[in-house]
Amino acid sequence: MKTAFVFPGQGSQSIGMMKGYADLPLMRETFSEAADILKQDLWTLVNEGPAEALNSTINTQPIMLTAGIAVYRAWESLGGKKPDYLAGHSLGEYTALVASGALTFSDALRLVSYRAKIMQECVPEGVGGMAAIVGLDDDEIRVVCAETMRNCEGMLLEPANFNSPGQVVIAGHKNAIQQAMELSKAKGAKLTILLPMSIPSHCSLMKPAAEQMRQLLEKISFASPTIPVLHNVDVQQHHDAASLREILAKQLYSPVRWTETVRTFASTGVDHVIECGPGKVLVGLTKRIDGKLKSLSLTDSNVLKQTIDLLK
To answer: What span, in angstroms and rounded, lies between the C-alpha atoms of 103 and 134?
Structure first.
């Protein structure tokens, strides 16, 4: 039996998302550790909101990292089986690197807090956006982006997240996004959804932020991962510090190749994909990518304990 742990990114956060783990002291301890490092009370924000503050990129990124690590620490403390592989969706890649031993928790918090700040500052509010397109395949999405850019001179639009077959997120200038949504419908898309994000993540508009990210990454120490991590940019493993720094910088402006990541897990003999952290977004994607894989989400302490017993 082989397992892969996957860590969610932005979009999985919600007020009260840690209440299901209330009987596990490690949750509060991990959030207290993060508060000491960042000088910010993330625990109160997670439990009480307000939602607007929780959903602000500058808060969401360190919160989701902390939540994922808290759940992973609880898994380890209760005797959970060490996973065979790790991956994280976008921001979740940093959580995966901490779980692998490649990054310290404190350095990861520093990195994601800076990442959130420079992403927020890179594209002015109202200029960029993201939208989910459901019902077109990857090549059709690429054609939509290319046609839209030809019609919107000076604007950029690219695929940002290849989440599952028939579900792709696009990112770029907001006006181009709107036109691409209409074009997608004309080409047979079942659904187009403008996402509540002003930051056009994982597209070329983030290249200036990536250059800033490189500067901080050079100051961070990396160890070789003790558990293989598949990365968003190329669905490959990276082991040395230089490669890890480069792949994390590129991640800001490169699409998340999630469909390929899950299929790679399956090709290596993985039969259980475990979403480590609050929410079930990645469970849903896994089921759409490969229905043969058993997909579980550690949404509360009871499920966590049951899954540990299941995989023994």
So the answer is: 35
